[in-house]
Amino acid sequence: MIVSKMKKLSYLFLLLSLVAGCSTVTRVFKGLSPRDQYEQKIKQAGLLETAMGRAWVEAGARALKDSLVILLPYKEEGYFFSDRAQAASYRFKAKRGEKLVVSVEKDTLARFSIFAELFSIDGGRTERVDFADEGNFIHFEHSIEKDQTFLLRLQPELLKGGYYRLVVTTAPSLHFPVKGKNASAIGSVFGDGRDGGKRRHEGVDIFARRDTPVLSASSGLVIRTGEDRLGGKIVLISNLKDLSFYYAHLDSQLVNVGTYVKEGDVIGLVGNTGNARFTPSHLHFGIYASGHGAIDPYPFIFNLQKAPADPEMSTSAVVGEFVRLQSKKAVLRHSMEKGGKIIMPLERNSVLTVYAASKNSYRVELPDGRTGFVSNAVVEKIEKPILRKNFRKEQEIVDLPEVKALRIASLSKDTDLPLYGEFNEYYLVGYKNGYGWIAK
Fold this sequence. Notes:
This protein has helices spanning 5-20, 23-28, 34-44, 51-65, 298-301, and strands at 68-69, 74-80, 88-94, 98-106, 114-122, 125-131, 137-143, 148-156, 162-172, 186-188, 193-194, 199-200, 204-207, 213-215, 220-228, 232-238, 243-253, 260-261, 266-270, 282-289, 293-295, 322-325, 329-333, 342-347, 351-357, 361-365, 371-375, 379-381, 387-391, 395-398, 407-411, 415-423, 426-431, 434-439. The chain has 440 residues and is mainly β.
């Protein structure tokens, strides 16, 4: 008995509705990420016996191996399609001391879940380090413990989709230690030479007027106060984990050893004591890590991060649609970095599908499934045909430009059809039911 595609989809929707309502499964798999729980439900419901169920699991696994490279801050507006198994993944770098901030906002009218998971990449090892609880607005923050490459994976529920907006930014993990100031007040950075190059600067200098309040960058215990030759009047605070925070050149200390302070509490006043007595008043702020000594405080307190740029082109006008290359030559890139890895060159009239838009790029997919970034300036919507062509022989119109593609229509002799683009040895043509591919 042949079951129609519509009946198959109805059956899958029924199973998925049962999966969504099975609260006992959630308890059984308590402790797993929401995506893990969902995949377990898919398996228990028997959906791995279906092509769509297997494709969903495979799409998630493939995303961990074939991610695109982005630069932070990053903003993307895109669309997940309910009739395809999709997962998007983004690779980027972050520094110790930064706080990664991820938000995913969905169309409020769309009832579907997006699973957001963060992975660290260390050599050839990929390990999940954080994930978001699902909701209409996904938001989670992750403190970076060492300079590292990360991967963010987004995947919607099976057979569900809609519009979304992704924003990935960084923020300082510590409170800025001088009241009323920001990172623009930093005048000397970690590693600068001191004493004619005999030693290096083990912190940052934040310049401010004398007696400006110095604030605790983190909650912790005051473990030392006093005065020494280099630092003058100092305060040392431990976060009771692995970091100690050093405040030097103070005009006065306002806390005592043994005091527990909260983030943002006043602990002293800016001055120029110690070896800073001949310089403008400033705070020397240093961070010391157990087993590592002094580390760069800059990423911990830098609070001048730029907001990600909005897409220059309207996503809703092109997302999910075919576009074609209008330039003579362009490239599909693996990375948004200037001079980043090129996946392949693209010829004029090459056909692409737009999945998302960022500042000045589209995240696209080629007809053969390869994905990457292309400049939005080199493509155009497929609205008018390139030309009309007479096909003198009987031919098949197929759904994909490949040998094993599915036939979707037959073409009679001497039929004129509009050509909208091409890929490899196929033309994209328009016919009564939409678009299809014909071998050249």
